[in-house]
Write a structure and sequence with these properties.
The structure is a homodimer. By secondary structure, chain A is mainly beta. Chain A has two domains: about 110 residues, Beta Barrel (Porin), CATH 2.40.160; about 140 residues, Porin. Chain A is built from five helices and 16 strands. In chain A, strands 1, 2, 5, 6, 7, 8, 10, 11, 12, 13, 14, 15 and 16 form a 13-stranded antiparallel beta sheet that branches. Chain A has a two-stranded antiparallel sheet with strand order 3-4. In chain A, strand 6 and strand 7 form a beta hairpin. In chain A, helix 2 packs antiparallel against helix 4. The mean pLDDT of chain A is about 95. Chains A and B meet through strand 5, strand 8, strand 9, strand 12 and strand 14 of A and strand 5, strand 8, strand 9, strand 12 and strand 14 of B. Chains A, B: It comes from Streptomyces chengmaiensis. Chains A, B: InterPro entries: ACOT8-like_C, Acyl-CoA_hotdog, HotDog_dom_sf, Sec_Metab_Biosynth-Assoc, TesB_ACOT8-like_N. Chains A, B: It holds the Pfam family 4HBT_3C. Chains A, B: This is Thioesterase family protein.
């Protein structure tokens, strides 16, 4: 791990930067550094759209972000068009779409997002959480792509940007012995040591290997829809991410993610509908 | 219960009817029959938007519907404007907004929805579900608004349209002794005996008393965002709905709903972010 960088000055911040072209319209560059095989990671894309909406809307923080994935994004230029749907006193709602050019120069929509924003620092302090942090071994007993014993298949550019250490109990797939349970748990951080913030939580919920691997299914698990609720500004330090699939049926599966911060708070919850691998 | 009516010819179908005004634009009438206190039920509104999208899109069935609630709807006229975002071979994505007129005659947006549609009858048969149907007593041992021993507070017009029988284990709130657990379970049907279909599942996920009641909190729990995944066409007969809240914090709570059909299949999953009652 490199010397820690600060929020605002990191790989993640540079690669999710957006440049105002005209009111509500932002230019972006999808980095090849956040690809899995050839596809751009869906959580990275969500963070990019989330940053644009944070600039466009009167409130700074994503509270609820719902994304429907339309076509596969490619590394390279993109434009994000935002719309303010409603501006309230404590919350505002916006819409954003990410477009890229196809071979003929026409605009193709990649993702469309509806999002409600607010101010996480102004929420009341009451906490009545029955959820428990995931039972995950200490970080030094978990394994990342570089730890062996066998290299984790499917490694891609994004693995260099992330600091993921998987719970050995959910690592059977990498050794040819998937558990058969739809569970994946890991310690999560950014490789350059940048601390988490609400935008990086949008990445964290979609950055682990798919639960389908532990169900013995290999191959692509394209996201159809992903909704993230940001419940609390995360404390500095590593996150723990727990992903669960309870229902694989009809060619689809859901992935529910819980993200816990170093202060033992449930900082994000997400659910996605994805297409099950054929394998 | 009245003599059973058929899908397409029921209170629910009449009250969620939409009339094509021009391509993509539908007139509707929000029925006062689906109100809780004075507010129009959010699941009923979602079913209305879902019906309009089912007519506008090339695929018939909602697979994933994400709604952001903007302003409180009122019984009376409404217009739904839809847009086809993407048309694929097996799935299509659309957007819809419901508008009403304010006192000055201006259009006010009530809800905006992004939705991915497909064809539930063309999904493969594979089922690998680890989720278990909710542990709920037989219907005759559960209680509805008319069963006493105490009348259930908060009863409203919608209770006449629904056939809800709550698990006694989640009914403590009605007797002044909430369990403190964020759980609500019930048998769910439509009062006129109409069988479930994908549209009525959009209603079912948001029709039970809020889990906040069992957490000892009374009052309004307005939905900020609600996403529903329809996983299977439901079999005829009563549904079982289980709602869980694990994280009440910062003035918000999530409600996760599972809906099971009479064939013991998990037919719908939803999650919503709602504002916690102040009580």
């Amino acid at each position: 791990m490199a010397e820690a960088v600060t929020i605002g000055d990191s790989e993640f911040d540079r690669d999710t930067a957006v440049a105002l072209r005209e009111p509500g319209v932002y230019d972006a560059e999808l980095s090849a550094g956040w690809t899995i095989i050839r596809a751009v990671n869906g959580g990275y894309l969500l963070a990019l759209l989330g940053r644009a909406l944070g600039e466009a809307l009167p409130h700074p923080d994503p509270l609820a972000v719902s994304a429907h994935y339309l076509t596969a994004s490619q590394p390279g230029p993109a434009v994000i068009r935002t719309q303010t749907v409603r501006s309230g006193r404590t919350m505002s709602t916006g819409q954003a779409s990410l477009f890229q050019r196809d071979e003929d120069g026409g605009e193709v929509e990649r993702i469309r997002v509806l999002a409600t924003y607010g101010d996480l620092d102004r929420l009341p302090d009451d906490v009545r959480t029955s959820a428990k942090p995931p039972a995950i071994p200490p970080r030094e007993h978990c394994f990342g792509p570089s730890d062996g014993p066998a290299p984790i298949p499917g490694s891609s550019a994004i693995t260099d940007r992330l600091d993921i250490k998987l719970d050995p109990a959910t690592l059977g797939w990498a050794l040819g012995a998937p558990s058969g349970k739809g569970e994946m748990r890991a310690w999560f951080g950014l490789a350059d040591g940048r601390d988490p913030d609400p935008l990086s939580l949008l990445l964290a919920v979609d950055a682990l290997p798919p639960t389908a691997f532990e169900l013995g299914l290999e191959g692509w698990t394209p996201t159809v829809e992903l909704t993230v609720h940001i419940r609390c500004r995360p404390a500095p330090g590593p996150l723990r991410v727990s992903i669960t699939t309870r229902n694989l049926a009809g060619g689809f599966l859901e992935e529910d993610a819980d993200v816990w911060d170093s202060a033992d708070r449930l900082v994000a919850q997400s659910r996605q509908l994805a297409m099950a691998p054929r394998g």
